[in-house]
Specification:
It contains 42 helices and 2 strands. Strands 1-2 form a two-stranded antiparallel sheet. Helix 18 (281-293) packs antiparallel against helix 19 and helix 22 (351-363) packs parallel to helix 24 (382-394). The protein starts with a helix and ends with a helix.
């Protein structure tokens, strides 16, 4: 207050009365905006002492101060000092009641006014819009005798704020027909409406009006243009608007940040974020959310910590994204700390926070804690239900997941996709198909993710008929060219043995990503079309911007192995790190061992295993043993088998291969010793499995398996067939 006193006493009110009054009014506005009621009271007392507190201009600002601070006794006193019909007082009281949410009182005050001006009408129009009472707002708008640009803009922006974008555009056309010229706020709201409705052609027409009217460099208009350009996918236009802005605020920076976030260019987004002269909670939340959604959980957490350190208060969205990042990292301890903070500030029962907490606890292996969070949410939405269903599924508790799924009041496509994905992840492909049929009968349309899961289930049980049936439904919905659905179809046909259809789907895809190419390369290589797989890889390198990944190169090595292209395979292996920047993993080394072993280069394969930079996989020794079996090399086989025993004593494959090698060499005593050793260790050769689909049901069979519900009849029929075959042989 000392500074205030000096400011006032620096001016002699007798000599410079106008400057004195302006200073007092400026201070009153400052105190009002900042809620400094004590300083306001002191200044009011000073003004009474000077005998100018009842000056109309000063008194109205004192009234605004007390209205903002809700000092009702002081309000009543000032109102009494005014003539009851004073227009300014009534307008102030109407605005204050609207701000407090007392709309009916505001309307009563308005109705009691002997006269009204454009401020009175506009206050009521914008006030009812602000509180979602659109019909009443428009009633006053239509009867407003002062339909100037301010009242038109209040109605248009209010409609946009309430999500009635189409109605806002219709009102804008009426404004143009009336001859009233829009202002910068009008254009800001109209451009936002065009973006929300994706009316990009109209948006460009409005842009033309903006330029003609000279508003293109206004801050709020430029910000809306950036957002509209982003919705249109016109990244260059958005950047051009931003670069041409004479002045930028935090909204401008956040808008251009959002441009690069939406396009997935995290590096450029982070560069812009670091350049921002000021940031708000939205800027931080946008960046944290994108890091979390893109799988960069650690970066999201670092940014969250920095945000808190710099004194910003995270909003609900920011907390939810941070919890999601912690869930992806399985960082339970840090998640519990944030959970505690959300309880402290009273947002733990928010549906978005609750859903993220459920996800955190379930992904960290604590579904029961997730259930506690779920039960505490009073108003559960479908997102909460989907989170808990997915959480139980992730933890293998499918019965509980299914029970909760059945309790969802209104299932959406994500609900169905979640339970289907749960059964798929737990290897219950037949159950996936069963639930998918129920989904179709419910009348709900499956989403692309659900179709991908169902196709994966068809592939896992090699059910081509079911896969083709699903393909038919996809075509009916017109989503067969979607990159994710197309990739799932390519994979399904390849794994079901219909490589022709797999290639056809792949070739018809208008856009292919890294996964699409990987699936096709793997499908060709594993289906015996090794040369085609290699040709496709070379075509990808020539014609596509997709960079080879470790799975593609594994398929290439596999193809080279099955084609006998040893030197070519070795060149690809050497190129992995030097050319493609991919460090080979154990499975790549194993594939090279198989490549050398299949071609008879057993000594090289043995040396290659010896020089591996890490512990070889058991499969590497198994691959070498397989080569030894093929080329009858008992010495290398014995050395390899010994190492395999040390590495994986419970792996029966190596012992079986060594037994076969001894049998081929006529070393029957060694064969007997191996089999005795296997019996003592409880090792058995893995049984083969076959299956058949009858009347839309898949039946699986294993060697000496009696689990099938018709096993007695099956074995009886086999015995009958055997007897008949033996009888035929006897007769011959």
């Amino acid at each position: 207050m000392a500074t205030t006193s000096r400011t006032i006493w620096d001016i002699n009110p007798k000599k410079r009365f106008k400057a004195y009054v302006q200073t007092c009014v400026s201070l009153l506005k400052k105190f009002s905006n900042q809620g400094l009621i004590t300083q306001g009271n002191v200044l009011h007392a000073h003004l009474i002492k000077k005998g100018i507190s009842s000056q109309k201009y000063i008194a109205s600002n004192l009234l605004i101060l007390y209205l903002n601070c809700r000092k009702f006794a002081a309000i009543d006193q000032i109102v009494k000092e005014f003539d009851g019909s004073d227009l300014v007082v009534h307008n102030c009281l109407i605005s204050a009641n609207i701000q407090w949410g007392n709309l009916d009182q505001a309307r009563t005050l308005f109705d009691e006014m002997p006269e009204r001006n454009e401020v009175s009408w506009t206050a009521l129009i914008s006030g009812f819009m602000k509180h979602g009472r659109v019909g009443e707002s428009m009633w006053y708008f239509e009867r407003n005798p002062f339909q100037n640009v301010v009242s038109w803009t209040a109605a248009i922006s209010g409609l946009v704020r309430n999500g009635l974008n189409f109605e806002a555009l219709k009102l804008f056309f009426r404004l143009l027909e009336s001859g009233v010229r829009p202002n910068d706020v009008t254009y800001t709201s109209v451009l936002r409406a065009c973006g929300e409705l994706r009316e990009f052609g109209l948006g460009m027409s409005v842009l033309g009006l903006v330029v003609i009217s000279g508003f293109e460099h206004y801050l709020s208009v430029s910000n809306s243009l950036i957002t509209l350009s982003l919705r249109m996918g016109e990244i260059d236009l958005a950047r051009r608007v931003f670069d041409q802005m004479e002045k930028r605020d935090v909204v401008s920076w956040t808008a251009i940040l959002d441009v690069y976030v939406e396009t997935g260019d995290l590096r450029e987004a982070r560069r812009i974020f670091d350049q921002m002269p000021e940031r708000n909670e939205i800027s931080w939340s946008v960046m944290i959310a994108r890091y979390s959604q893109s799988g960069y959980g650690e970066e999201a957490l670092k940014l969250f910590s920095k945000m808190v350190w710099e004194g910003f208060k995270p909003n609900v969205s920011c907390f939810a994204c941070t919890l999601s990042a912690l869930a992806s990292l399985k960082a339970l301890s840090a998640g519990i700390n944030i959970h505690g903070h959300t309880i402290k500030i009273g947002i733990n029962k928010d549906v978005f926070i609750g859903s993220s907490l459920i996800d955190l606890y379930c992904k960290c292996g604590n579904p029961d804690d997730g259930r506690l969070v779920f039960d505490l949410i009073s108003e559960k939405n479908v997102v909460c239900w989907n989170s808990i269903v997915g959480g139980y599924s992730v933890n293998g508790r499918l019965e509980e997941a299914k029970e909760l799924f059945e309790l969802i009041p209104e299932k959406n496509d994500v609900s169905w996709g979640t339970i289907i994905a749960g059964y798929l992840e737990n290897g219950q492909s037949e159950k996936v198909l069963e639930i998918f049929n129920t989904l179709l009968l419910s009348g709900q349309t499956p989403n692309k993710s659900t179709f991908s899961s169902v196709l994966c289930a068809c592939a896992s049980i090699a059910s081509l008929d079911k896969g083709m049936n699903v393909h038919g439904k996809i075509i009916k919905l017109g989503i067969q060219y979607d990159i994710f659905v197309g990739t799932a179809l390519t994979d399904m046909y390849a794994k079901c043995g219909d490589i022709g259809s797999s290639k056809q789907v792949f070739e018809r895809m208008p856009e292919k990503n890294e996964i699409s190419w990987t699936v096709m390369l793997q499908g060709l290589a594993e289906s015996g079309f090794a040369e085609e797989s290699l040709m496709l890889f070379e075509e990808m390198e020539r014609t596509s911007e997709v960079a080879p990944n470790e799975l593609m190169l594994l398929s290439v090595l596999f193809a080279c192995s099955h084609c006998g292209l040893v030197d070519k395979g070795l060149r690809y292996f050497i190129s992995m790190e030097k050319v493609y920047g991919i460090k080979p993993k154990g499975i790549h080394y194993t594939c090279v061992v198989d490549l050398l072993s299949r071609s008879g280069r057993l000594n090289e394969a043995e040396e290659f295993i010896r020089t591996m930079p890490f512990q070889p996989e058991a499969n590497a020794f198994t691959a070498l043993l397989s080569g030894c079996n093929k080329y009858k090399d008992a010495k290398i086989a014995e050395r390899t088998a010994k190492k395999l025993w040390e590495l994986a004593e419970k792996n029966s494959a190596g012992y079986v291969l060594l037994s076969n090698i001894y049998a081929s060499a006529g070393r029957w005593i060694d064969v007997s010793n191996i089999r005795k050793f296997m019996r003592e260790r409880g090792l058995k050769k893995s049984g083969g499995c076959s299956w058949v689909e009858v009347r839309n049901q898949v039946h699986s069979f294993y060697s000496e398996d009696g689990s099938h519900f018709q096993s007695d009849e099956i074995y009886g029929t086999l015995q009958l067939l055997r007897s008949e075959m033996l009888g035929i042989e006897t007769q011959q």
